[in-house]
Amino acid sequence: MTMASRTTSGAPAVPADAGDESELAPLLRKAAAAKQQPGQQSGGIVMATVTAAEAEDGFCEVTSMDGHRTLRCRRAASCLLLPAPGDTVMVAGPHDEALYLIAVVAQADSSQATLAVDGDLRLQSRQGGIAIQGAGAIELQSDTAVATRSPQWTLAAERAQCTVSELDYQGAEVRFSVLVSRFVGRACEVVLDRLHLLTRSSFRITEEVEQVRAGQIDMQASRTLRLHAKNTLVTSRELVKVDAEQIHMG
C-alpha cells in the first residue's frame, strides 16, 4: 500500500534539498556581484598610476590601471623612493581606508630620483665600507651642520674651491707642499713663539710705514748692505760704532 501510494502521483522524484538550493542560488549570485563592485575590494595588490604626489599630510593620490578607481594611500616606510606624478606604483592594503604605496615600479622621468624619509636617516655598514659614486656632481647640503669624523681623511681633486665666512683650525702640525702660493687679504695677524724662514730670494714692498720692535737685531750680509733714504737718522743712547778698513763720509 505504501509503495502504490508513492507511485500513483505521476510526478518524478525530487531530492529533498533541491528546493533549498534553488532558493539560495540568487543570494549567492548577489553576494558574488557585490564583491566585484568597484571600491569594495577587501585587499590585495593593485597596479596604479600616481596622479598627485605626496602632500603635507603624507598621502598621495593614485588611479588604478583600469581607470575606474581613485585611491588615497600613504607611502610605506620601506618605499624610500619618492613617487612623482605619472609613476607606475604598487598599492596594497587590507581595505581602501588603509592602503599603502609599497613600491615604485616604473618612473615617468627616470633622469632624477629622490629618496625621502620623515625622520633621521642613517646608512650603516657593520663590516664593510660605504661608497657614493656619481657620473655627475655630488652635493651635500644641510640646514644646520655637516660633520665628518674619522681617524684619517683624504681629499684628492684636480681643483678645489672653499668659501668660508669664519674658519677656526686647531691641530698639532701642518705641512704645505706647493709650487705657488698666493695670499690676498686686508689684515694678517700672526702670533708665534718662533719664526724660521728660509728663502733663496725675498722681495717686500711697504707703501706706508714699517715698524720693527725687537730686543736685539742682528743683520748680516755676505756682500753688500745698503741703506738709502731721503733722510736717515741713526741714534743711540750710549754708543755708536763704525768700524771698517775704509770709511767715506760726504
UniProtKB/TrEMBL annotation:
Protein name: DUF3540 domain-containing protein
InterPro entries per the UniProt record, alphabetical: DUF3540
Native organism: Variovorax paradoxus
Classification of source organism: Bacteria, Pseudomonadati, Pseudomonadota, Betaproteobacteria, Burkholderiales
Pfam families on file: DUF3540
UniProt-annotated stretches for the region Disordered: 1-21
Source superkingdom: Bacteria
Polar residues bias spans: 1-10
